Amino acid sequence: MFTEADYCRTENQYLQFFLRILQETNTDGVKIAQLERYKPVPWRLGQILRGERLDSFLRDCLREKCWGRLENDALVFEFGYDYYLHLACGVDRETVEAAVKEEGLFLEDWHPF
Length: 113
Hints:
The protein is α+β, with helices and mostly antiparallel strands. It has one domain. The protein contains 3 helices and 5 strands, in the order H-E-E-H-E-E-E-H. Helix 1 (4-24) runs antiparallel to helix 3. It has helices at residues 4-24, 51-62, 93-103; strands at 30-37, 48-49, 66-72, 75-79, 85-89.
């Protein structure tokens, strides 16, 4: 049975992965470059997100309240369907693979960017 605790653990794994990639790129903020709202959310196009605001935005995306593409000079990030995470960044593949493994996620090559 998939419980709320299971969901929260998986959600946290995604957030920790993204925060690690931010750390690896030596950045702490991202801009909402594209945004679609499915439920009322406080986010706006062009908004810079850091810390708790970034955490809340990512959770809203995972919970399908909204969708957004996040960007800064070092990365492009968005969630896809069914918990896919699309990421383009200058972090070497070995580091990304290690972060994926550490968080218990799965890696699949995809080249849309």
